[in-house]
Design brief:
Number of domains: 2
Shape: elongated
CATH topology of the largest domain: Rossmann fold
Length: 369
């Protein structure tokens, strides 16, 4: 199985893009290694699709440079960049067969018929559609059409594959299956790929690294586990996964741990802030344990945060249950596996307990200077 070898394959350096007075991308830097799959993740309007279009050559930056395989392509037209693009709509030709669609890019490049036939056979085999070459694409399912679009992009042996929300048109179960299948295929052929999505689960499932984008900039670039476990900014925390957040003021700080006064009581978190700083304390809900008998629970462990409150809601979600606990006018979110919440009822007294080591702290973006 192929894996990223660390050699730079796509280099985006200080790229900016403006449309009139609107700055869509602001001095973005990103390097993608050969054989790596990097996902651009963010909300609508954050600049991720614009960045993909710049790599594809469908738009030109006002500032900065883009290189693919060591070649500066900043102002090279799309057809001379040797990139493959898979769009959300797939952009297939309904009047052509599956094989005709896959062959199209090679045919317009003037490749010999024998070479085209070999490439079509090879790529259809890769996406497991070799038995459907003569079928019209209009007769295919959504998942099959997605594979045809991928085969067409692969047939020209591109330096880099670009995916623009390529799985978003599929229903949930098929999309999840295709995420796993597409990742397997890209690793198998050692492809370099950049994937655009607004779906955090899709990004976590497929990526070697994820670039979380916000307001035309990259907020954080990291592997999926690091991104989820140690979000560098409050935006990343909120966009990737669920979280409990409470505002407060730093009361003390020592040895990389801050003590924060909040509406739910005094909490501790990992971080470096001066006393008096307005902050947001946060934690992932799966780290919060719910103790039904708060009065009988030992609260003497200083390595753990404790909040006493009342169960507001218990929401069953199949393999897990979501519990909302109200305390000090705030709602805190916990997540328990399986039937861990079977004995909890709305109105019950409860204590939330979670490790200080799994508690984050960030500057409060809404605090007045």
């Amino acid at each position: 199985m192929s894996s990223p070898d660390g050699a730079p394959h796509v280099v985006i350096r200080s790229v900016s893009k403006r449309y009139g007075p609107l700055t869509v991308l602001d001095r973005v830097d990103l390097t993608v290694a050969r054989g790596e799959l990097v996902t651009l993740l963010g909300p609508s309007g954050c600049g991720k699709t614009t960045l993909l279009r710049l790599v594809a050559g469908l738009a030109t930056p006002e500032e900065g440079a883009i290189a693919i395989a060591g070649r500066d392509v900043t102002r090279v037209p799309p057809h001379r960049r040797n990139v493959g693009v898979v769009f959300q709509s797939y952009a297939l030709f309904p009047h052509l067969t599956v094989a005709g669609n896959v062959a199209f890019g090679l045919a317009v490049r003037g490749r010999p018929r024998e070479e085209i036939d070999r490439a079509v056979a090879r790529t259809l085999s890769l996406v497991r559609l070799e038995h459907l070459g003569s079928r019209r694409v209009s007769a295919l399912s959504g998942g099959q059409q997605q594979r045809v679009a991928l085969a067409r992009a692969l047939a020209v042996e591109p330096e880099v594959l670009l995916f623009d929300e390529a799985l978003s048109a599929l229903d949930r179960n098929l999309r999840e299956d295709m995420q796993v299948e597409l990742r397997r295929l890209l690793r198998e052929i050692g492809a370099t790929a950049i994937f655009v999505t607004h779906d955090q689960d899709e990004a976590l499932t497929m990526s070697d690294r994820i670039a979380v984008m916000n307001g035309g900039r990259i907020e954080q670039l990291a592997d999926p586990k690091t991104l989820y476990a140690r979000p560098a900014t409050l935006f990343t925390l909120g966009f990737v996964g669920q979280s409990t957040r409470v505002r407060g003021t730093v009361a003390a700080a020592a040895d990389g741990v801050v003590t924060v006064d909040t509406p739910v009581g005094r909490l501790s978190a990992m971080g470096h802030f001066a006393a008096g700083s307005p902050v947001v304390v946060a934690a992932r809900p799966e780290h919060l344990n719910v103790v039904a008998d708060a009065a009988g629970h030992d609260g003497g462990d200083r390595a753990r945060n404790r909040v006493d409150g009342r169960v507001r809601a218990v929401i069953f979600q199949g393999s897990r249950s979501r519990i909302e606990v109200e305390a000090g006018g705030e709602t805190l979110l916990a997540e328990l596996p399986g039937r861990g919440a079977a004995d909890l009822r709305p109105g019950d007294d409860a204590r939330l307990v979670w490790p200080v080591a799994e508690t984050f702290v960030y500057p409060d973006p809404e605090a007045r200077p």
